[in-house]
């Protein structure tokens, strides 16, 4: 099958098979449990809010979700337990029936230090966790932690817990996507397909980069996005070097401009660049785009099960060949990164790391491939990104807005 992957819509319906959220929850929890069982750990204590969502199937907004106060405990043979921000715990008891209400606790550790550790909240939380581990016969087993504030780590150690790294295990668990996850990722990409049509129509001299960002945010939330994480809008002389942000710059006739739209649908993210010229394009701009497209097509051609990420990275140019002193300085320009609940999951593909420690591509991996080529005029540049899924037959592309050739918006 070579057509687009299904992106059937936002609603569940009785006349089509769409995302099965119960199946999605079961899949994610089973992957996390398998990672725990394969480890030396008696439990995972999770603060990374993507890992919390993966294990507990709960979410609250990023304003609270990233303050290191939500956490989840997954023990061998035990239920997933959650400590959440105040009244969110009561909401989960009412609306998250896959969790036992007794396992949904209100929790507070300090909001990244705003409440000092001397208040004792961390010490109390760790005593509670130790009691649960002791009740399940896991008192002497290591505890795997993904992310942690230093005072919490020090208190765990002071109370006699042996802490090991769980993030590597959780990232391994998350890297193979189920059919439901792939459908959600495809739906998220389809939303951006539509936003790029709006951007092309709006991309005229006199509009500012931040106005394009506002347009994209508005359209994504209207379409059902649950979080617009970031939008890069880069034009004219700001294209080279790539600043990875947006400004209030006025877009001018003949500019080259590129955009990256990062949002999530039901938690599943996009990272989706497109480059345009405004009104007209110069020979230097077209030449840069052709090179970026050639590098992109070469990497897509490599994507199939059994290929190493070092082999993918090898088809991209070395940093010194496009104006950078080394691979660290050019990191993120010729680049691949896993997509899922997080923006940067496994595999990470680049000349910086993949030549040292390649990862074998497997069916079910979903990741973005990014290329960048500075133009010979010294200030323009082309940036292309495609999201792909590895299938047993090879590679399928999720991002469908036309990018084989440079699109000139509102040509004169």
From TrEMBL:
InterPro entries: Creatin/AminoP/Spt16_N, Creatinase/aminopeptidase-like, Pept_M24, Peptidase_M24B. It comes from the Bacteria. Gene3D superfamilies: Creatinase/methionine aminopeptidase superfamily (3.90.230.10), Creatinase/prolidase N-terminal domain (3.40.350.10). Pfam families: Peptidase_M24. Residues 185-392 form the Peptidase M24 domain. PANTHER family: AMINOPEPTIDASE, XAA-PRO AMINOPEPTIDASE P-RELATED. This is Xaa-Pro dipeptidase. It comes from Nonomuraea jiangxiensis.
């Amino acid at each position: 099958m070579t057509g687009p992957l299904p992106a059937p819509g936002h609603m569940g319906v009785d006349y089509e098979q769409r995302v099965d959220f119960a199946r999605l929850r079961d899949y994610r929890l089973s992957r996390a449990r398998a990672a725990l069982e394969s480890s030396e750990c008696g439990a995972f204590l999770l603060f990374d809010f993507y890992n919390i969502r993966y294990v507990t199937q709960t979410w609250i907004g990023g304003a609270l979700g990233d303050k290191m106060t939500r956490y989840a405990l997954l023990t061998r043979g035990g239920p997933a337990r959650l400590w959440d921000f105040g009244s969110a715990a009561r909401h989960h008891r009412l609306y998250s029936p896959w969790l036992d209400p007794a396992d949904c606790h209100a929790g507070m550790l300090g909001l990244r230090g705003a409440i000092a550790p001397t208040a004792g909240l961390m010490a109390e939380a760790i005593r509670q966790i130790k009691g649960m581990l002791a009740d399940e016969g896991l008192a002497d087993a290591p505890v795997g932690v993904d992310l942690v504030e230093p005072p919490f780590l020090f208190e765990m150690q002071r109370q006699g817990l042996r802490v090991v790294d769980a993030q590597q295990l959780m990232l391994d668990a998350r890297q193979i996507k189920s059919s439901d996850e792939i459908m959600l990722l495809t739906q998220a990409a389809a939303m951006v397909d539509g936003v790029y049509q709006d951007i092309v129509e709006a991309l005229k001299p006199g509009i500012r980069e931040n106005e394009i960002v506002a347009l994209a945010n508005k359209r994504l939330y209207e379409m059902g996005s649950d979080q617009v994480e970031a939008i890069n809008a880069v034009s004219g002389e700001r294209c080279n070097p790539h600043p990875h942000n947006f400004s209030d710059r006025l877009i001018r006739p003949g500019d080259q401009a590129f955009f990256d739209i990062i949002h999530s649908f039901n938690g599943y993210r996009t990272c989706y660049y497109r480059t345009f010229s405004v009104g007209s394009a110069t020979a230097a701009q077209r030449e840069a785009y052709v090179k970026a497209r050639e590098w992109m097509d070469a990497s897509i051609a490599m994507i199939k099960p059994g290929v190493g990420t070092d082999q993918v990275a090898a088809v991209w140019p070395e940093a010194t060949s496009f104006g950078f002193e080394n691979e660290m300085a050019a990191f993120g320009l010729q680049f691949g990164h896993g997509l899922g609940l997080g923006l940067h999951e496994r595999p990470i593909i680049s000349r910086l790391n993949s030549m040292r420690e390649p990862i074998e591509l497997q069916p079910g991996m979903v990741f973005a491939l990014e290329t960048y080529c500075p133009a010979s005029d010294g200030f323009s540049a082309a940036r292309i990104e495609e999201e792909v899924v590895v299938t047993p037959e090879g590679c399928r592309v999720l991002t469908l807005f036309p990018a084989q050739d440079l699109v000139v918006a509102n040509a004169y």
